[in-house]
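During the no-cost extension, the postdoctoral fellow (Dr. R.K.) reprocessed legacy sequence entries with the updated structure-token encoder. One reprocessed record is reproduced below for audit purposes.
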Amino acid sequence: MKSTRKLIKSVLVMAMAVAVLGASFQSATAAKNAPVRMIPEDFSALAQDASPAVVHIRVEKTVQGGEAAFRQFENQPFQGDDRYKEFFDHFFGGRNPHEFKQNGLGTGFIIDKDGFIVTNNHVVEDADKIKVVLKDKHEFDAKVVGRDPQTDLALIKIEANEDLPAVRLGNSGKLQVGEWVAAIGSPFGLEQTVTAGIVSAKGRVIGSGPYDDFIQTDASINPGNSGGPLINMNGEVVGINTAIIAAGQGIGFAIPIDLANNIIEQLKTNGEVTRGWLGITIQDLKGDLAEYYKLKDKSGVLVADVIPGDPADKAGIKPHDIIIDVNGEKVMTSRELTGTTAKLTVGDKAIITVMRDGNQKSFDVEVGKRPLILADAGTPRPEKETEFGFQVADLTPEMARRLDVADDKGVVVVGVNANSKAEKAGIQKGDLIKEVNRQDVESVGEFKKLIHAYKEGEGIDLLVKRMNAGYVVVHLA
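Re-encoded structure tokens follow.
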């Protein structure tokens, strides 16, 4: 009897185990086969929560008209007709410039109850009047607190005599590509328009300035959305909608809120943005540069120029140094170095670590203030020619100024013959030749001696500094 009971008990336990396993398998199979929810069910709660703090901005600017405004009429059928000139001179006082009013629009969002509003610099730049319209249609005059053209951000303020609704700021660093976001703004003046899409990419560089680090999204963004918020599914602002590609569809760009936070705070406190400055021009180690400088990888940033008298020069940093570290933080690209430098406090000491001739060196640099305007460039005039089919000239102070370089050594390429060896190798007019096979070049005579020292068939490597490109290596056969 006892053995029978034990057998029955074992059978029951096994049956229960099989039942549990079967249920688990069915549940797992159902979960596997169930459709994955890809699209949020509803954006209405998000829109209702954020939209009261999103504002429509109308601006009025004074612009110069006159000759440019009438230039279109100079084509046929009026071209060359003196009566045309008499007509416009009589009715418009000639074609001298005249002032006229131009209206613009944009979007912004309130960041605190006191009425501070974030928008784009290009929305309010040079505005004579700024009107802010809230969701409830109340209108206020606004004043500019501060602007930062380099990141296209601006802070304006209204006086409402009441607590205003404000957005919640999120963390753009946590955004994932493919994550859903929504944009709220006034495209083409259509106030409180909500569009949705995903984060298409992060860290986009579109050539708008030195601090490009855009969020790309396919949430519909159009003229008038500028300055409006890009919002995550928690209802938090993660970006400021700023740019579109005119020929593209479904491609918009937003400034990450993590980048904007420090700028907004500086504008709120000081009315301007102060950035750190080392006094160098830099470039990434692309192409053959890493091999030329005998680096195992392409990490680090090449110092192309050092501006005399500026912080890096005073500290001892030299052209051709490879910056690998700032205050213990590794830098891999020129964009990273620019961003790291911008965050440094003016007047503080920064420890810059470089690689020089295969050796690691550190320098204490007193951080300066970044200037807003850089010098213009020009082109020199031709002088002497080489057997490779290009003309070179000694670098003079005037040429250095026109080429916008701080160098006082090297030879300038002032002409390249068509179909020559130089043209085929990629040498360009305006190139500044600094080295021949790793030997410094200080004059045309020295350059020719170095060129002639190599026998026919041997390779010649030229280290060239090229305007708007930095250092490149050109191989002459």
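The first helix runs from residue 2 to 33. The chain has four domains: 53-158, 168-270, 276-369, 384-476. The remaining legacy entries will be reprocessed before the final report is submitted.
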